[in-house]
Amino acid sequence: MRLVRLAGNGLRVLWRPQLLVAVLAVALGAATGGRLLAAGDVPAGLALTLGLVQALPLVVAMYRPMTGFWLSLAAGMLVSEVARAGGDGPVWAEPSLLAHLGVLALIGLQARPQVLVALWLLTLAAGAILVQRMPGMDASADLGEMTVLSAVVLAAAAALGGRREAQRRLAEQQRISDDERARRALLEERARIARELHDVVAHHMSVIAIQAEAAPYRVPDPPEELASSFATIRASATEGLRELRRVLGVLRADGAAGDPAPQPDLGRLDELVAGVAAAGLAVTTTVTGDPRPLPPGVELSAYRIVQEALSNVLRHANGSDVRVEIVYRPAALELRVRNGPPPVPPAPSPGAGHGLPGMRERAAMLGGELAAGPDPDGGYAVAAVLPAGEDGGR
């Protein structure tokens, strides 16, 4: 990540923690060198070397926290000793104090509380050793200052690190929750599709069984072989219907009552459009090609895809103009539902929006395809192609 990036609307400054730490390290290194040179008894080469030594722990602590701590402790004690040179002065040289507090802050953002307590005690021990090197001087104020400052810095860093970790875990849980919600919605849509297909297939299996039972009575004195064949067809259809109800009937266990009405098809498209038009949508429907009866699964899926697309328009772009196009091809049925931009920006949706996966499931079940996405003018379009030839939907 660069410090400055040229964005489409101008310059945008992007701060990076590593860069800030590096700048701080350079500043403290320069301050250390200047502090030692000001003492007058330290050669320039030694002052420059100790300035680099004082700056190094901050950079190391970003990648090796404990190594940076020990380096900071040793460098701070060394610089403080040289700066004081056995005379009066603070227990910790000011640049060393700031550098060590910076190292503690970096470690506190990621270490456990037990580790932070140990670092605090080690810092106090280092201060006590420095005090022992200052006989006859009252350094309790300096030592108390370092004790309080290090405790405050460690506590603040630990709080920030804990908050960041809590936010990370919350974001992870939110992602898992969204994935689970999407998976549950997809399973519910699949169950709904299975229930609908169960009704469609069960109807046709029942018709086969009834016709096979009635067929022998339509022919006077039917041959025994013919009657036996019809009986076998009826038995197979009845057994298949029984197995179908046994396997898929469990989908009714979620409390979804069976709908005695026939499953919808494209013949009821006008009713659907009239319903959403009454809710505030201006809907235009066009049908091109040669309309013809299609397999029940194709009719049902086409109706549900258009229904879900119109429901999405009601939720997200109510008041916009909508165009529904149905195109009959020799081997496919094409659907397109497009709405213009909404009159007012839609309110944020509280849900995750799982209608599109359900529509894709219906198209994929038939071997078709579905695409959805925004238009350049601010509208939205859903387009599907469903195989609808002689074998379409089977």
Task: Name some characteristics of this structure.
394 residues; alpha+beta; Heat Shock Protein 90; 3 domains; 5-stranded mixed β-sheet; two-stranded antiparallel sheet
Structure report:
The chain has 394 residues and is α+β, with helices and mostly antiparallel strands. The chain has three domains: 4-137, no CATH class; 188-254; 266-387, Histidine kinase-like ATPase, C-terminal domain (Heat Shock Protein 90, 2-Layer Sandwich). Helix content is 60%, strand content 11%. The chain is built from ten helices and seven strands. The chain has helices at residues 17-39, 44-61, 65-84, 94-108, 113-132, 140-214, 224-248, 269-278, 296-316, 355-365, and strands at residues 4-7, 10-13, 282-288, 321-328, 332-339, 369-374, 380-387. It has a five-stranded mixed β-sheet with strand order 3-4-5-7-6, covered by helices on one side. A two-stranded antiparallel ribbon has the order 1-2. Helix 1 (17-39) runs parallel beside helix 3 (65-84) and helix 1 runs antiparallel to helix 4 (94-108). The radius of gyration is 39 Å and the shape is elongated.
What is the structure about, briefly put?
The chain has ten helices and seven strands.
Secondary structure blueprint with pairings:
Elements: E1 4-7, E2 10-13, H1 17-39, H2 44-61, H3 65-84, H4 94-108, H5 113-132, H6 140-214, H7 224-248, H8 269-278, E3 282-288, H9 296-316, E4 321-328, E5 332-339, H10 355-365, E6 369-374, E7 380-387
Parallel strand pairs: 3-4
Antiparallel strand pairs: 1-2, 4-5, 5-7, 6-7
Helix pairs in contact: 1-2, 1-3, 1-4, 2-3, 2-4, 3-4, 3-5, 4-6, 5-6, 6-7, 6-9, 6-10, 8-9, 9-10
